[in-house]
Known about the structure:
It is built from 17 helices and 11 strands. By secondary structure, it is α/β, with parallel strands linked by helices. It starts with a strand and ends with a helix. Tryptophan is lined by residues 6-8, 10, 43, 46, 140, 143-144, 152, 154, 158. Tryptophan binds at residues 6-8, 10, 43, 46, 140, 143-144, 152, 154, 158.
Amino acid sequence: MKKRVLTGITTTGTPHLGNYAGAIRPAIEASRSADVESFYFLADYHALIKCDDPARIQQSRLEIAATWLAGGLDPDEATFYRQSDIPEIPELCWLLTCVAAKGLLNRAHAYKAAVDQNNEAGDDPDAGVTMGLYSYPVLMAADILMFNANLVPVGRDQVQHVEMARDIGQRFNHLFGRGRDFFAMPEAQIAEEVATLPGLDGRKMSKSYNNTIPLFSSSKELKAAIARIVTDSRLPGEPKDADDSHLFTLYKAFAPAEQTAQMHADLAAGLAWGEAKQRLFELLDSQLEQPRERYHELLARPQDLEDILQAGAVKARAIATPFLAELRDAVGLRSFSQAAPGSEKKKPKKAKKSCRVVSFRDDSGFRFRVLNAAGEDILLSVAFADGRAAGQVLKALQAGELELRQERLQVQALQAGEVVAQSDSLADEAACQGVLQTLQDLAAE
Length: 445
Ligand code: TRP
Protein backbone atom coordinates (compact mmCIF):
# COMPACT_ATOMS: atom_id res chain seq x y z
CA MET A 1 0.00 0.00 0.00
CA LYS A 2 1.10 3.55 -0.68
CA LYS A 3 2.30 5.51 2.29
CA ARG A 4 0.22 8.49 3.23
CA VAL A 5 2.17 11.67 3.88
CA LEU A 6 0.31 14.56 5.44
CA THR A 7 1.28 18.00 6.62
CA GLY A 8 -0.35 21.35 7.28
CA ILE A 9 0.82 24.92 7.52
CA THR A 10 -0.80 27.33 9.94
CA THR A 11 -2.06 30.30 7.96
CA THR A 12 -0.95 33.27 10.00
CA GLY A 13 1.84 34.78 7.92
CA THR A 14 3.61 35.13 4.60
CA PRO A 15 5.89 32.18 3.84
CA HIS A 16 9.59 33.07 3.80
CA LEU A 17 12.59 31.33 2.28
CA GLY A 18 13.00 29.15 5.38
CA ASN A 19 9.43 27.81 5.20
CA TYR A 20 9.89 27.13 1.54
CA ALA A 21 13.20 25.29 1.72
CA GLY A 22 12.45 23.58 5.03
CA ALA A 23 8.89 22.42 4.55
CA ILE A 24 7.18 23.25 1.29
CA ARG A 25 9.84 22.32 -1.24
CA PRO A 26 10.64 18.88 0.25
CA ALA A 27 6.93 18.13 0.59
CA ILE A 28 6.36 18.96 -3.07
CA GLU A 29 9.26 16.71 -4.02
CA ALA A 30 7.83 13.90 -1.90
CA SER A 31 4.44 14.26 -3.58
CA ARG A 32 6.02 13.33 -6.91
CA SER A 33 7.12 9.95 -5.66
CA ALA A 34 5.03 7.09 -6.98
CA ASP A 35 4.75 5.25 -3.69
CA VAL A 36 3.21 8.04 -1.63
CA GLU A 37 -0.19 9.60 -1.44
CA SER A 38 0.15 13.13 -0.17
CA PHE A 39 -2.26 15.29 1.79
CA TYR A 40 -1.25 18.92 2.16
CA PHE A 41 -3.48 21.47 3.72
CA LEU A 42 -3.84 24.98 5.05
CA ALA A 43 -4.32 24.71 8.80
CA ASP A 44 -6.65 27.69 8.97
CA TYR A 45 -8.57 26.50 12.03
CA HIS A 46 -5.23 26.37 13.82
CA ALA A 47 -4.58 29.90 12.63
CA LEU A 48 -7.58 31.15 14.60
CA ILE A 49 -5.84 30.05 17.80
CA LYS A 50 -3.02 32.52 17.29
CA CYS A 51 -4.60 35.31 15.34
CA ASP A 52 -7.82 37.30 15.63
CA ASP A 53 -7.27 39.49 12.59
CA PRO A 54 -9.61 38.24 9.84
CA ALA A 55 -7.82 40.17 7.08
CA ARG A 56 -4.51 38.62 7.98
CA ILE A 57 -5.97 35.13 8.13
CA GLN A 58 -7.52 35.57 4.71
CA GLN A 59 -4.39 37.05 3.14
CA SER A 60 -2.19 34.36 4.60
CA ARG A 61 -4.42 31.54 3.32
CA LEU A 62 -4.23 33.04 -0.13
CA GLU A 63 -0.46 33.49 -0.03
CA ILE A 64 0.27 30.06 1.35
CA ALA A 65 -2.01 28.38 -1.17
CA ALA A 66 -0.30 30.28 -3.99
CA THR A 67 3.14 29.36 -2.61
CA TRP A 68 2.43 25.62 -2.73
CA LEU A 69 1.15 25.82 -6.26
CA ALA A 70 3.88 28.18 -7.45
CA GLY A 71 6.43 25.78 -5.98
CA GLY A 72 5.11 23.13 -8.36
CA LEU A 73 2.58 21.16 -6.30
CA ASP A 74 0.27 19.32 -8.66
CA PRO A 75 -3.20 19.41 -7.09
CA ASP A 76 -4.25 16.50 -9.28
CA GLU A 77 -1.54 14.35 -7.75
CA ALA A 78 -1.72 15.48 -4.15
CA THR A 79 -4.85 16.15 -2.13
CA PHE A 80 -4.56 19.86 -1.42
CA TYR A 81 -7.21 21.49 0.73
CA ARG A 82 -8.16 23.93 3.43
CA GLN A 83 -8.80 22.39 6.85
CA SER A 84 -11.84 24.65 7.26
CA ASP A 85 -13.47 23.17 4.14
CA ILE A 86 -13.63 19.74 5.76
CA PRO A 87 -16.38 19.79 8.42
CA GLU A 88 -15.53 16.19 9.29
CA ILE A 89 -12.30 17.41 10.89
CA PRO A 90 -13.87 19.43 13.73
CA GLU A 91 -16.42 16.68 14.14
CA LEU A 92 -13.69 14.07 14.55
CA CYS A 93 -11.92 16.54 16.81
CA TRP A 94 -14.87 16.32 19.20
CA LEU A 95 -14.92 12.52 19.19
CA LEU A 96 -11.21 12.60 20.01
CA THR A 97 -11.64 15.32 22.63
CA CYS A 98 -13.93 12.93 24.48
CA VAL A 99 -11.21 10.30 24.75
CA ALA A 100 -8.15 12.56 25.11
CA ALA A 101 -6.84 12.66 28.66
CA LYS A 102 -6.67 16.15 30.14
CA GLY A 103 -3.41 15.15 31.81
CA LEU A 104 -1.92 14.47 28.38
CA LEU A 105 -2.84 17.93 27.13
CA ASN A 106 -1.50 19.54 30.31
CA ARG A 107 1.90 18.45 29.06
CA ALA A 108 1.68 20.05 25.60
CA HIS A 109 4.62 22.41 24.99
CA ALA A 110 2.63 25.33 23.64
CA TYR A 111 0.27 25.36 26.60
CA LYS A 112 3.05 24.81 29.11
CA ALA A 113 5.10 27.65 27.65
CA ALA A 114 2.15 30.01 28.04
CA VAL A 115 1.66 28.95 31.68
CA ASP A 116 5.39 29.31 32.43
CA GLN A 117 5.36 32.80 31.00
CA ASN A 118 2.37 33.75 33.11
CA ASN A 119 4.00 32.35 36.23
CA GLU A 120 7.17 34.29 35.56
CA ALA A 121 5.20 37.48 35.12
CA GLY A 122 3.29 36.76 38.33
CA ASP A 123 -0.01 36.49 36.45
CA ASP A 124 -2.75 33.90 36.79
CA PRO A 125 -1.28 30.72 35.25
CA ASP A 126 -4.04 30.52 32.64
CA ALA A 127 -4.14 34.21 31.77
CA GLY A 128 -4.75 34.60 28.04
CA VAL A 129 -4.88 30.83 27.50
CA THR A 130 -7.86 29.89 25.33
CA MET A 131 -9.38 26.46 25.02
CA GLY A 132 -8.18 26.61 21.41
CA LEU A 133 -4.56 26.78 22.54
CA TYR A 134 -5.14 24.11 25.15
CA SER A 135 -6.83 21.69 22.75
CA TYR A 136 -4.55 22.51 19.82
CA PRO A 137 -3.01 19.02 19.82
CA VAL A 138 -6.43 17.35 19.61
CA LEU A 139 -7.32 19.31 16.49
CA MET A 140 -3.98 18.36 15.04
CA ALA A 141 -4.65 14.71 15.92
CA ALA A 142 -7.94 14.98 14.03
CA ASP A 143 -6.09 16.39 10.98
CA ILE A 144 -3.72 13.46 11.00
CA LEU A 145 -6.06 10.62 11.95
CA MET A 146 -8.86 11.69 9.62
CA PHE A 147 -6.73 10.56 6.69
CA ASN A 148 -4.81 7.80 8.45
CA ALA A 149 -1.49 9.46 7.70
CA ASN A 150 1.61 7.29 8.09
CA LEU A 151 4.22 10.02 7.82
CA VAL A 152 3.90 13.58 9.08
CA PRO A 153 6.75 15.90 8.04
CA VAL A 154 6.99 18.60 10.69
CA GLY A 155 9.41 20.87 12.48
CA ARG A 156 11.01 19.69 15.69
CA ASP A 157 8.56 21.68 17.83
CA GLN A 158 5.67 19.64 16.43
CA VAL A 159 6.97 16.15 17.14
CA GLN A 160 5.25 16.03 20.53
CA HIS A 161 1.93 16.75 18.85
CA VAL A 162 2.34 13.83 16.47
CA GLU A 163 3.06 11.61 19.46
CA MET A 164 -0.10 12.85 21.11
CA ALA A 165 -2.04 11.99 17.96
CA ARG A 166 -0.78 8.43 18.36
CA ASP A 167 -1.84 8.32 22.00
CA ILE A 168 -5.28 9.66 21.30
CA GLY A 169 -5.81 7.49 18.25
CA GLN A 170 -4.72 4.40 20.12
CA ARG A 171 -7.15 5.14 22.91
CA PHE A 172 -10.00 5.49 20.45
CA ASN A 173 -9.02 2.23 18.75
CA HIS A 174 -8.97 0.51 22.11
CA LEU A 175 -12.33 1.85 23.26
CA PHE A 176 -14.33 1.53 20.07
CA GLY A 177 -12.39 -0.61 17.62
CA ARG A 178 -13.79 -3.96 18.77
CA GLY A 179 -10.87 -5.73 17.23
CA ARG A 180 -10.43 -3.28 14.39
CA ASP A 181 -7.90 -0.44 14.35
CA PHE A 182 -9.71 2.55 12.94
CA PHE A 183 -6.61 4.70 13.02
CA ALA A 184 -3.13 4.01 11.71
CA MET A 185 -0.31 5.20 13.95
CA PRO A 186 1.41 8.26 12.42
CA GLU A 187 5.12 8.98 12.59
CA ALA A 188 6.77 12.37 12.62
CA GLN A 189 9.39 12.97 9.95
CA ILE A 190 12.00 15.70 10.33
CA ALA A 191 14.23 16.67 7.42
CA GLU A 192 17.35 17.38 9.46
CA GLU A 193 19.60 19.54 7.27
CA VAL A 194 17.08 21.86 5.78
CA ALA A 195 14.57 22.10 8.60
CA THR A 196 16.70 24.70 10.33
CA LEU A 197 17.64 27.11 7.58
CA PRO A 198 19.50 30.01 9.24
CA GLY A 199 18.26 33.56 8.95
CA LEU A 200 20.20 36.76 8.28
CA ASP A 201 21.80 36.72 11.73
CA GLY A 202 22.57 33.00 11.82
CA ARG A 203 19.74 32.04 14.19
CA LYS A 204 16.94 29.88 12.85
CA MET A 205 15.08 31.80 10.15
CA SER A 206 11.87 32.87 11.77
CA LYS A 207 9.45 35.73 11.64
CA SER A 208 9.72 36.09 15.39
CA TYR A 209 13.45 36.88 15.09
CA ASN A 210 12.84 39.29 12.24
CA ASN A 211 15.71 37.69 10.32
CA THR A 212 13.88 36.24 7.33
CA ILE A 213 14.68 36.34 3.64
CA PRO A 214 11.54 37.05 1.64
CA LEU A 215 10.47 34.35 -0.77
CA PHE A 216 8.53 35.87 -3.63
CA SER A 217 9.17 39.58 -3.31
CA SER A 218 11.09 41.41 -6.06
CA SER A 219 14.72 40.73 -7.05
CA LYS A 220 15.60 44.07 -5.57
CA GLU A 221 14.21 43.16 -2.18
CA LEU A 222 15.88 39.77 -2.31
CA LYS A 223 19.20 41.46 -3.02
CA ALA A 224 18.70 43.92 -0.18
CA ALA A 225 17.95 41.11 2.29
CA ILE A 226 21.02 39.13 1.23
CA ALA A 227 23.16 42.23 1.68
CA ARG A 228 22.14 42.21 5.33
CA ILE A 229 23.40 38.67 6.00
CA VAL A 230 25.88 38.86 8.85
CA THR A 231 29.41 37.58 8.06
CA ASP A 232 32.70 37.73 9.91
CA SER A 233 35.12 40.57 9.19
CA ARG A 234 37.60 38.70 7.05
CA LEU A 235 38.78 40.81 4.17
CA PRO A 236 38.83 39.88 0.50
CA GLY A 237 41.76 37.54 -0.09
CA GLU A 238 41.69 36.16 3.44
CA PRO A 239 40.76 32.46 3.64
CA LYS A 240 37.24 31.88 4.96
CA ASP A 241 35.73 28.87 6.70
CA ALA A 242 32.58 28.03 4.76
CA ASP A 243 31.40 25.57 7.36
CA ASP A 244 31.30 28.33 9.92
CA SER A 245 29.27 30.64 7.69
CA HIS A 246 25.50 30.67 7.51
CA LEU A 247 25.73 32.43 4.19
CA PHE A 248 27.28 29.20 2.94
CA THR A 249 24.59 27.12 4.67
CA LEU A 250 21.95 29.06 2.75
CA TYR A 251 23.87 28.60 -0.47
CA LYS A 252 24.18 24.89 0.12
CA ALA A 253 20.44 24.52 0.66
CA PHE A 254 19.83 25.63 -2.93
CA ALA A 255 22.92 24.84 -4.99
CA PRO A 256 23.70 21.46 -6.56
CA ALA A 257 26.58 19.54 -4.96
CA GLU A 258 29.24 20.51 -7.47
CA GLN A 259 28.49 24.20 -7.28
CA THR A 260 28.44 23.95 -3.49
CA ALA A 261 31.91 22.40 -3.48
CA GLN A 262 33.15 25.17 -5.75
CA MET A 263 31.84 27.84 -3.39
CA HIS A 264 33.46 26.05 -0.46
CA ALA A 265 36.82 26.03 -2.21
CA ASP A 266 36.55 29.63 -3.39
CA LEU A 267 35.82 30.88 0.12
CA ALA A 268 38.82 28.98 1.44
CA ALA A 269 40.86 30.66 -1.30
CA GLY A 270 39.78 34.10 -0.15
CA LEU A 271 36.58 34.94 -2.07
CA ALA A 272 35.24 38.27 -0.78
CA TRP A 273 32.00 38.16 1.23
CA GLY A 274 30.52 40.70 -1.15
CA GLU A 275 31.23 38.33 -4.04
CA ALA A 276 29.79 35.42 -2.10
CA LYS A 277 26.62 37.39 -1.46
CA GLN A 278 26.35 38.23 -5.13
CA ARG A 279 26.62 34.51 -5.96
CA LEU A 280 23.97 33.63 -3.40
CA PHE A 281 21.73 36.30 -4.84
CA GLU A 282 22.15 35.02 -8.38
CA LEU A 283 21.50 31.47 -7.29
CA LEU A 284 18.32 32.29 -5.40
CA ASP A 285 17.07 34.79 -7.93
CA SER A 286 17.43 32.32 -10.79
CA GLN A 287 15.76 29.52 -8.84
CA LEU A 288 12.93 31.67 -7.58
CA GLU A 289 12.30 33.62 -10.74
CA GLN A 290 9.81 31.21 -12.27
CA PRO A 291 7.87 30.33 -9.13
CA ARG A 292 7.81 34.02 -8.24
CA GLU A 293 6.16 34.80 -11.54
CA ARG A 294 3.64 31.98 -11.10
CA TYR A 295 2.98 33.10 -7.55
CA HIS A 296 2.00 36.59 -8.63
CA GLU A 297 -0.15 35.24 -11.44
CA LEU A 298 -2.00 33.03 -8.99
CA LEU A 299 -2.52 35.82 -6.49
CA ALA A 300 -4.04 37.86 -9.26
CA ARG A 301 -6.64 35.12 -9.90
CA PRO A 302 -8.07 34.30 -6.48
CA GLN A 303 -11.12 32.61 -8.03
CA ASP A 304 -8.85 30.04 -9.68
CA LEU A 305 -7.22 29.34 -6.34
CA GLU A 306 -10.65 29.01 -4.81
CA ASP A 307 -11.68 26.48 -7.47
CA ILE A 308 -8.52 24.43 -6.95
CA LEU A 309 -9.07 24.28 -3.21
CA GLN A 310 -12.75 23.45 -3.57
CA ALA A 311 -11.82 20.56 -5.83
CA GLY A 312 -9.28 19.51 -3.20
CA ALA A 313 -11.98 19.56 -0.54
CA VAL A 314 -14.18 17.29 -2.65
CA LYS A 315 -11.30 14.83 -2.93
CA ALA A 316 -10.53 14.96 0.77
CA ARG A 317 -14.16 14.57 1.75
CA ALA A 318 -14.57 11.53 -0.46
CA ILE A 319 -12.36 9.90 2.17
CA ALA A 320 -13.45 11.82 5.27
CA THR A 321 -17.24 11.53 4.93
CA PRO A 322 -17.57 7.73 4.79
CA PHE A 323 -14.82 7.29 7.39
CA LEU A 324 -16.50 9.64 9.82
CA ALA A 325 -19.77 7.77 9.32
CA GLU A 326 -18.03 4.61 10.51
CA LEU A 327 -16.58 6.41 13.49
CA ARG A 328 -19.95 7.88 14.44
CA ASP A 329 -21.41 4.42 14.25
CA ALA A 330 -18.61 3.02 16.40
CA VAL A 331 -19.31 5.43 19.25
CA GLY A 332 -23.06 4.85 19.06
CA LEU A 333 -24.27 7.84 17.03
CA ARG A 334 -26.51 5.89 14.67
CA SER A 335 -29.80 6.12 12.92
CA PHE A 336 -32.65 4.82 15.10
CA SER A 337 -33.81 2.66 12.24
CA GLN A 338 -30.53 0.81 12.07
CA ALA A 339 -30.54 -1.52 15.05
CA ALA A 340 -32.24 -1.90 18.38
CA PRO A 341 -30.26 -0.50 21.29
CA GLY A 342 -27.89 -3.02 22.76
CA SER A 343 -28.33 -5.41 19.87
CA GLU A 344 -24.63 -5.46 19.17
CA LYS A 345 -24.10 -7.00 22.59
CA LYS A 346 -26.13 -10.01 21.53
CA LYS A 347 -24.26 -10.22 18.32
CA PRO A 348 -20.57 -10.65 19.02
CA LYS A 349 -18.68 -11.43 15.83
CA LYS A 350 -17.73 -14.89 16.96
CA ALA A 351 -21.40 -15.75 17.53
CA LYS A 352 -21.59 -16.26 13.79
CA LYS A 353 -22.35 -19.94 13.22
CA SER A 354 -21.89 -20.49 16.93
CA CYS A 355 -24.23 -23.46 16.83
CA ARG A 356 -26.01 -25.88 14.60
CA VAL A 357 -29.49 -27.40 14.79
CA VAL A 358 -30.43 -30.89 13.72
CA SER A 359 -33.98 -32.22 13.24
CA PHE A 360 -34.54 -35.95 13.49
CA ARG A 361 -37.05 -38.64 14.33
CA ASP A 362 -36.81 -41.39 16.93
CA ASP A 363 -39.15 -43.92 18.52
CA SER A 364 -41.02 -41.28 20.50
CA GLY A 365 -41.60 -38.89 17.60
CA PHE A 366 -40.10 -35.77 15.97
CA ARG A 367 -37.37 -33.84 17.71
CA PHE A 368 -34.54 -31.38 17.18
CA ARG A 369 -31.31 -30.84 18.96
CA VAL A 370 -28.91 -27.90 19.20
CA LEU A 371 -25.15 -28.38 19.05
CA ASN A 372 -22.64 -25.70 20.09
CA ALA A 373 -19.60 -24.62 18.05
CA ALA A 374 -17.60 -27.48 19.52
CA GLY A 375 -20.22 -29.94 18.31
CA GLU A 376 -21.51 -30.81 21.77
CA ASP A 377 -25.24 -31.36 22.35
CA ILE A 378 -26.56 -28.49 24.41
CA LEU A 379 -30.30 -28.82 24.00
CA LEU A 380 -32.74 -31.57 23.10
CA SER A 381 -36.40 -30.99 22.34
CA VAL A 382 -39.29 -33.05 23.63
CA ALA A 383 -40.86 -35.42 21.08
CA PHE A 384 -43.55 -33.93 18.85
CA ALA A 385 -46.30 -35.81 17.12
CA ASP A 386 -45.33 -34.49 13.73
CA GLY A 387 -42.47 -32.77 11.97
CA ARG A 388 -44.38 -29.54 11.49
CA ALA A 389 -44.91 -29.03 15.21
CA ALA A 390 -41.22 -29.68 15.85
CA GLY A 391 -40.27 -27.25 13.07
CA GLN A 392 -42.47 -24.50 14.48
CA VAL A 393 -40.93 -24.75 17.94
CA LEU A 394 -37.43 -24.74 16.46
CA LYS A 395 -38.32 -21.62 14.47
CA ALA A 396 -39.62 -19.96 17.62
CA LEU A 397 -36.33 -20.80 19.39
CA GLN A 398 -34.33 -19.31 16.52
CA ALA A 399 -36.50 -16.22 16.55
CA GLY A 400 -35.84 -15.72 20.25
CA GLU A 401 -39.52 -16.27 21.05
CA LEU A 402 -39.05 -19.06 23.61
CA GLU A 403 -38.51 -18.32 27.25
CA LEU A 404 -35.11 -19.57 28.37
CA ARG A 405 -34.50 -20.35 32.00
CA GLN A 406 -32.23 -22.27 34.30
CA GLU A 407 -33.66 -24.97 36.60
CA ARG A 408 -30.95 -26.00 38.99
CA LEU A 409 -28.17 -27.20 36.64
CA GLN A 410 -30.39 -27.57 33.62
CA VAL A 411 -31.28 -25.08 30.91
CA GLN A 412 -34.85 -25.17 29.63
CA ALA A 413 -36.76 -23.57 26.79
CA LEU A 414 -40.45 -22.97 27.36
CA GLN A 415 -43.38 -22.19 25.12
CA ALA A 416 -46.59 -21.03 26.75
CA GLY A 417 -45.31 -22.23 30.11
CA GLU A 418 -44.47 -25.74 28.88
CA VAL A 419 -40.94 -27.08 28.67
CA VAL A 420 -40.35 -27.82 25.00
CA ALA A 421 -36.60 -28.45 25.09
CA GLN A 422 -33.88 -28.83 27.69
CA SER A 423 -30.23 -29.52 28.26
CA ASP A 424 -28.69 -32.42 30.08
CA SER A 425 -27.85 -31.86 33.67
CA LEU A 426 -24.75 -29.64 33.42
CA ALA A 427 -21.52 -29.62 35.38
CA ASP A 428 -21.81 -26.21 37.02
CA GLU A 429 -23.24 -22.73 37.00
CA ALA A 430 -20.76 -21.52 34.37
CA ALA A 431 -21.75 -24.29 32.00
CA CYS A 432 -25.41 -23.24 32.36
CA GLN A 433 -24.51 -19.62 31.62
CA GLY A 434 -22.56 -20.74 28.57
CA VAL A 435 -25.51 -22.68 27.18
CA LEU A 436 -27.91 -19.81 27.85
CA GLN A 437 -25.54 -17.41 26.08
CA THR A 438 -25.21 -19.71 23.08
CA LEU A 439 -28.97 -20.02 22.77
CA GLN A 440 -29.37 -16.26 22.98
CA ASP A 441 -26.70 -15.83 20.31
CA LEU A 442 -28.54 -18.32 18.13
CA ALA A 443 -31.64 -16.18 18.41
CA ALA A 444 -29.64 -13.07 17.45
CA GLU A 445 -28.06 -14.56 14.33
N1 TRP B 1 0.67 22.74 14.04
C1 TRP B 1 1.41 22.75 12.81
C2 TRP B 1 2.38 23.90 12.82
O1 TRP B 1 2.09 24.93 13.40
C3 TRP B 1 0.49 22.86 11.64
C4 TRP B 1 -0.42 21.68 11.58
C5 TRP B 1 -1.73 21.63 11.90
C6 TRP B 1 -0.04 20.37 11.19
N2 TRP B 1 -2.23 20.39 11.73
C7 TRP B 1 -1.22 19.58 11.30
C8 TRP B 1 1.15 19.80 10.76
C9 TRP B 1 -1.21 18.22 11.01
C10 TRP B 1 1.16 18.44 10.47
C11 TRP B 1 -0.01 17.66 10.59
O2 TRP B 1 3.42 23.80 12.22
